[in-house]
Every structure is written in C-alpha cells, then in structure tokens.
Amino acid sequence: MVYGDLQFFDIIVFAVIAIFILYRLRSVLGKRTGFQKNTLNDIQETKSKQNEHPIPSLKENERKLEEIYSKVKDFDHKIFLDGAKKAFEIIITAFNSGDKKTLKNLVSQDVYNAFASAIDSKSNNANAQFYSLEIDSIEEAKVENGKMIISIKFISEQIIDNKEESIIKNHDVWVFEKPVNANNPIWTLTST
User: Fold this and answer.
1) Half-sphere exposure for 61 (CA within 13 Å, toward CB)
2) Is 98 helix (H, G, I), strand (E, B) or coil?
3) Residue 13 belongs to what domain range?
C-alpha cells in the first residue's frame, strides 16, 4: 500500500501545481467576459482604419474631390488647388509671352501643340496680364487607370495694356492629371 499512497500523493501534487499554473495564467491573461470583439473583427477594423483617412470639410463647389480622397490617402485639396491656380497663371503668362519652353514642362503634348500653334500664328497677346483669378468649381474628379484626373472651372480676368476698360473675363475648364503613385508634385495639364 505504500507504493499506491505515493502515486496518490504525486497526483495531488501535480493537480495543485496545475491549478496554481492555471490561476497564474488567468491572472496574467485575463478572462473573456463576452464584451470583447472577435479577434478577426479587430484585425479587419484595424486594416480598414489604416486604409481610411478622414475627408476634410469641403466647400460646396469642391465636393467632387471626395472621390479622390476616398482612393488616394495622401491627397490634399488645398495644396492641389493652390498649385492649380499657380499653374494656370504660369501657363497663361508663358502663352501670352510666347514662352514655349515653360509650356513644354507643364502641359501634355497635345496641349503643347495647340499652344505652340497659337503662338506661331500670333494668337497670343504679350500685353495681357492677370487682373484676377478664382476657381469657380471642380467639374469632375476621379481616379482612373492609376491616375488622378481633376477638371477645374477657372474664372480669370486679364487686363490689356494696363487699361481697366480693356479687362477680358474668361471662363475656362482645365483638366489636370497626375499618376497616383508619383513622387513628383507637378500635375500635367491635359486638356483646356
């Protein structure tokens, strides 16, 4: 019987050790109360939050940019719109002065050919200067074939020979494109 008592004693010792280990594990890991989310759901939510970024508050005439925000995580409409206005001024100033070299770097080949042809036929006016420029609206904004494509309606006023009575008001819709993954901040004018 002595041998049988030792086996019973061993079982009790191992049971106490197992209970102690389970107690320590539970105190370290905690217990499930039923209010925790499913681990798979947590992972999916984390991934979707990483892919999402908040869409900033947009003016009514800029609402179409939400499409770009939903697909391009580092898009900033304020930087884009400021750049578009500057590009408009630079391109029109270069056109008016006949500066084909500046135009070549900012516009697509088709737009360049149209501007160059107009410069060659003397349709530009070197005496025209900007009087005012505003963005009236975003006509279209989309991501297609790996490119962001945004159409902007500009309202510009140009003054001829510094005479206020010679102010010309223009309404232009320009289309800018840029590859989504481009490191270069410059957008290309692809249509006017």
Assistant:
1) 10
2) coil
3) 2-48
pLDDT score, position 129: 82
Total domains, the chain:
2
- Residues in the chain where the model's pLDDT stays below 70: 1-6, 30-53
147 within 8 A of 177, measured Cβ to Cβ: yes
Residues 123 and 159 in one domain: yes
Would you state the pLDDT for residue 113?
Answer: 93
Residues 38-51 pLDDT 10s? 565 665 565 555 55
Do the domain assignments include residue 158? yes
Residues 138 and 43 in one domain: no
Burial track 53-70 (b if 16+ CB lie within 10 A, e otherwise): eeeeeeeeebebbebbbe
Closest CA relative to residue 56, chosen from 78, 71, 72:
78
Return the pLDDT at 58: 82
pLDDT at 111: 92
Among 130, 178, 132, 170, which residue's Cα sits nearest to residue 153?
170
Q: Are residues 151 and 118 in the same domain?
A: yes
Return the CATH number at 79. 3.10.450.240
Residues 116, 136, 183, 177: what is their CA dihedral angle, to the nearest 10 degrees? -50
